[in-house]
Amino acid sequence: MTPILQARGIVKRYGHVTAIDGADFDLEAGEVLAVVGDNGAGKSSLINVLSGAVLPDAGEVLLAGSPVHFKSPHDARLAGIETVYQDLAVAPAMDIASNLYLGREIRRPGWRGKVLRQLDIRAMRQRAQKQLDELGITTLQSITQSVENLSGGQRQSVAVARAAAFGSKVVIMDEPTAALGVRESAQVLELIGTIRDRGIPVVLISHNMPHVFQIADRIHIHRLGKRAAVVSPREHTMNDVVAIMTGATELAA
Amino acid sequence: MDTAFRNPAIGPLAALLLAVAVFTVTTDTFMSVDNVSLILQQSVVIGTLALGQTLIILTRGIDLANGAIMVLGALVVAQLATGAGVPQGIALLAGFAVCGGLGLLAGGAVSRLSLPPFIVTLGFLTVLQAASRLHTRETVLVEEGPLTFLAQGGYLFGQFQVTVGVALVLITVAVLHFALTRTSWGRHVYAVGNDAKAAMRCGINVNRVLLSVYLLAGLLYALAAWQAFGRSPATSPNAFPTANLDTITAVVIGGTSLFGGRGGVIGSYLGALIVLVLQSGLTQAGIDPLYQQIATGILVILAVALDQFTRRSTR
């Protein structure tokens, strides 16, 4: 079966620094693929290429087998690839529903939407609530709370819900549990599982090996700007993964 | 409801009503139809300028040049209409083009060149003030016509005079309030002011939002120039020298955060009214005008302190 999202021979240089050195990437349908690597291994650059934030110098990205050329994150979103950034990309003074629909607001039907361009605030709230319910997010009391009044984990679930609502092909998450406590991390990991169970593959960038081993189906190990290996958490231990990450062990990619 | 625009006008409205109540009780002359009608008429120019200032401050900017843009626009209009004999309506349109163009230019510098709004508009202020004086050093008088149309008006409830200008400023506030709170464009303005990077990642074209805001502000400054003709047919390059600070005062008293992303236009107009009510009431009470200035200054600091306090308490 064709992988949903692929990258072939991606190269990205910043001046003299080669951030990505001919990297490959494969995301299969219905899986959670963890991307791990040491700081500076080029994980973020690779993810930025996949999410349209960075244009590669060479190589190609394929979505469901067809080449795509994202010039901005907006292009990637239109293609159904949603990214949850580490800083979440939310507007703190705006409420949960407004944040879920930020940049793709729903207009009222009829002349009020067409002529006055009036928003359908009620529809956005109802759909946002439905979305949260479907994802089993119960930690948010009211859809009309401002995001700045939420805890870190609640903010994370807003960003994840937004990605899940609009990511029709792929959801990419950059260190979603980095800033969270134990209980909140568990909730986010559960959400990742829920998204996968709904048939959307998830790319999870993480430094947290226990979290990676808990949720990932496969682990993409990045080293020195390339894919060093892809391993299964069932056949390899955390020590194996760390060894490949740091170059202590080599494994055919 | 979003804290961005959750009843942002309640505080200033309460302050305004309180000031009105105090002056009604303490002076005999404040609460008269003439005085209230006068305060409303006095509010139209700074009130309209404050609306443009609000839009820019909502995007985490600031405009030091709004008065200078308005004055240059007004001079161009007045000279076209008097010296060059252009029909007043056409001259007015030229004023909108000049002010809108200057707004667009400032917006371009802020968005495309990523320059700080404070510096861009400080430069605009300096250049435009000099340009206005190079243009003319005299006071230009326009004749009655479309330019002074906003001075027209009628009497409501007996002696209560309402000019077209007052009605227009209220309509402008209402239209902008709708656009800010009920359209995508408005939400994008708030989002840019909240966190421009996050807005960009949500697919919002941040540069285009900024350009639209500065362009709209420029057009509002042209509208303010028209309002000024309604107040007085005389235009001078030295008019409204403190419009920038007066509008920032109105915006801040009106509850809009100088840190962007929170507030609204209704509050700013109420803020402009509060300053005028204070001035008028303290004058009626026979208090030295310098104390009015002190009162306004204290109010600004209180308003900013309140903003800081509420921001901190929601964290």
From TrEMBL, chain A:
Protein's UniProt keywords contain ATP-binding: yes
Entry-linked Gene3D superfamilies: P-loop containing nucleotide triphosphate hydrolases
Record GO terms (molecular function): ATP binding; ATP hydrolysis activity
CDD domains on file: ABC_Carb_Monos_I
ABC transporter domain residues: 5-249
Keyword entries, A-Z: ATP-binding, Nucleotide-binding
Database matches in Pfam families: ABC_tran
Record-linked InterPro entries: AAA+_ATPase, ABC_carbohydrate_import_ATPase, ABC_transporter-like_ATP-bd, P-loop_NTPase
The protein's name: Mannose ABC transporter ATP-binding protein /fructose ABC transporter ATP-binding protein /ribose ABC transporter ATP-binding protein
Species of origin: Herbihabitans rhizosphaerae
From TrEMBL, chain B:
Localisation per UniProt entry: Cell membrane
Keyword Transmembrane applies: yes
Recorded GO MF terms: transmembrane transporter activity
UniProt main location, coarse: membrane
Protein name: Monosaccharide ABC transporter membrane protein (CUT2 family)
GO CC, one annotated term: plasma membrane
Transmembrane segments: 40-58, 65-84, 90-110, 117-136, 156-180, 209-229, 241-259, 266-284, 290-309
Record's keyword terms, sorted: Cell inner membrane, Cell membrane, Membrane, Transmembrane, Transmembrane helix, Transport
Topology versus the membrane: Multi-pass membrane protein
UniProt cross-references to Pfam families, sorted A to Z: BPD_transp_2 (PF02653)
